[in-house]
Amino acid sequence: MADLTALHEELARVVVVGRDLSVVLTEITGIARRAMPGAEATSITLVRGDDAHTAAFDGQLAIDADELQYERGHGPCLDAGRAGQIFVVDDMRTEQRWPDYARHTAAIGVRSSLSVPLPFQDAVIGAVNNYATRPEAFGDTDVEFGQEVASWVALAVGHARLGVQAGQDLAGMRAAMASRAVIEQAKGILMERNGITADEAFTVLTRASQRANTKLRDVARQLVSTGTLPGT
Fold it and tell me: What is the pTM of this model?
């Protein structure tokens, strides 16, 4: 996707009304990551009072970096989501605004980031976050694209909050994202261990779930915590 018009057109094709909010946000997040010239991983943080969580993500790096901020209570995505400012980090290794967060984020491979606030009814409800493994990955085009994505995320959340569609409450959405995260971790373990693709790893998890008559997320959680699959 090369320009803002193409991004707008793709976002406009996302059906917002009558769909589960987490599904809509996941679709938008995927579009954003593909469109943003500098992004290697993208997430959406929603903030309500002191509660902040990742409502959707594309790329494990994004949720890992988000969680480092939630653990500390500060960082670019949280500050963007609360103060309504755009924050660009050119290099985590030299970042001084959030030194503890930046040091830990650099340790997991993130070198730069862009967080764009989500405006909604004269307030700010969160941020769209983008991460890259190289420094200075985000420029003016990324900021412009990020603002376009943020407006569509705010629209989707607004529909859910105004009752146009029921959606999930924050606790339910958090649980859904946690399930997806542990499944992605389990897939990564199987891919590295067996030299298989992501789709093949998902098939292994699904079959283990069926054999054990256990929910997929529980099978994934067991693999992540113990290194073994049930029924094997």
Answer: 0.69
